[in-house]
Amino acid sequence: MSQLDATFIESQRQRLEALRARIIATGDAAGTDEKQWQDAAGNEPQDFGDDGERLAQQDRDEALLAHGEARLPAITRALAKIAEGTYGISDGNGEPIPRARLEAVPESTLTVEEQSALP
Fold it and tell me: From CA 105, how far away is CA 91, in angstroms rounded?
């Protein structure tokens, strides 16, 4: 069973829910930004510098979005573990996940060693 106190677990639940909301909002905002850029461009010829700037920003947005979306399943699993009462216990070996790891990466469901062993 987890050695984490209820206050810490509740704090982590709130962090995870806020993180999930922020990732979803980032995805929504990226879609809105792209639509605004397309609407603003219309059928007007664009300066190559403007296009380069827009494409660079789009690449950054897509990288952030992909990273965030990759975290969503782990966040969902961590929230489920809180509901189950198993937050802080590894899904892999059943050992406790150190509090410092959970503070650094609240969606952790494996120990550092187990995570490192994954392909």
Answer: 15
Tokens (6 digits) for 53: 């700037």
Instruction: At 51, list the tokens.
Output: 């296009």
Give me the helices (H) in 1-119, please. Answer: 6-41, 48-84, 99-104, 112-117
Rg (CA), the chain: 19
CA angle in degrees (0–180, nearest 5) for 60-76-8: 105
Query: pTM of the predicted model, to two decimals?
Result: 0.71
Closest CA to 107 of 7, 2, 18: 18
Band (pLDDT 50/70/90 cuts) for residue 18 is very high
Please report, for the chain, the start and end positions of each structural domain, with discontinuous segments joined by +.
6-117
Is the pLDDT confidence value at 47 over 90?
no
Read off the pLDDT of each residue in 11-35 and give the average, rounded to a whole number. Answer: 82
What CATH code is assigned to 6-117? 1.20.120.910
